[in-house]
TrEMBL record:
<dbReference type="InterPro" id="IPR029044">
    <property type="entry name" value="Nucleotide-diphossugar_trans"/>
</dbReference>
<dbReference type="Pfam" id="PF00535">
    <property type="entry name" value="Glycos_transf_2"/>
</dbReference>
<protein>
    <submittedName>
        <fullName>Glycosyltransferase</fullName>
    </submittedName>
</protein>
<dbReference type="GO" id="GO:0016740">
    <property type="term" value="F:transferase activity"/>
</dbReference>
<dbReference type="InterPro" id="IPR001173">
    <property type="entry name" value="Glyco_trans_2-like"/>
</dbReference>
<feature type="domain" description="Glycosyltransferase 2-like">
    <location>
        <begin position="7"/>
        <end position="127"/>
    </location>
</feature>
<keyword id="KW-0808">Transferase</keyword>
<dbReference type="InterPro" id="IPR050256">
    <property type="entry name" value="Glycosyltransferase_2"/>
</dbReference>
Amino acid sequence: MPKWVAILPVYNEESHIRNLIPVLQKWVSEDMAERAVVCVDDGSTDKTREILERAGLRVISSDPLRHRNLGKAQAFAAGAKFADKVDAKIVVSLDADILDPTAEKITSLAREIERSKFNMLVATQLEPTVVRFPGSAPKMEYQVIGTPYTGPRAIKMSALTPLLNRNPKWISLFKGFAIEVALEHLIPNKSRSQVSFYTDKGFRKGRRKQNRQIRTAIRKIEQRDGLCSKLREFRKTNRAFAKNYLAEMKKKHHHMR
C-alpha cells in the first residue's frame, strides 16, 4: 500500500496538463510501492481525462453519477477518500498549472512533513529576484514567493479524519470555500507551517493567478465573517423574541388564574 499519495484535482486542463504528466510518472516510478497518484476529474468537458488515462495515470471523478463541476475542495475530498482507502499516511495536494513542477520537489515536501511535528506544510519558494537600491548596483537575492492560499501542500492523513468522518463543520467549509481557504480555517495555526525551497524556477502558479486567488480567498473570508456576524445577530434577536414571548405567556397565564 502506498504511504504517500499525490492528489491532482483537474478541470478542463488539457492545455497544460501534459507538462505535469511526466513529472508524476517519474515521481511514482521512483518508489512504486510507497507512492501513488490520483487525478480527480471535477467534471471536465474537454480531453483532460482522456489525456491522463492514456498516460496510464489513475483518474477518478469528484461526482461519479452526475459528473458535475463541484469545485477543487470537493475534488480534493474525493482524493483524500481514495488515500484513506489505500491506507496512505500523507497526501500532497497539487495543481495542474504549477510552474516548473519536478518530482524532487514533491518528494521534498512529503519528506519534510513526514519528519515534522506539523499536520500541514505549505510550499513557498525562495526564488532569485533582482533587488535595486538607490545609489548601489542591482544585486540578486532570494525572496519568498507564494502565500498560504496558493502553494502546493502536504497534509498528514490523521489531520483529515474530520473530513473523512463527514464532520458538519468541515463539510460545510469544503462546500462553500476553496480548498486552501477551508484548510487554513480548519487546521489550527499551531498544527501548520510553511516550508521554503531554494529554486531557480517556481514550484507554484504564475504570479497573476496567485494574486487572483489571493483576492478571491480574502473576499471569501470577508463573506464568511459577514455571514457569521449576521447569524450571531439573528440568534441574539431570536433569543430576545423567545424571552419576550415566554414573559407574555406567563402574564396571560397569571391573569387567567
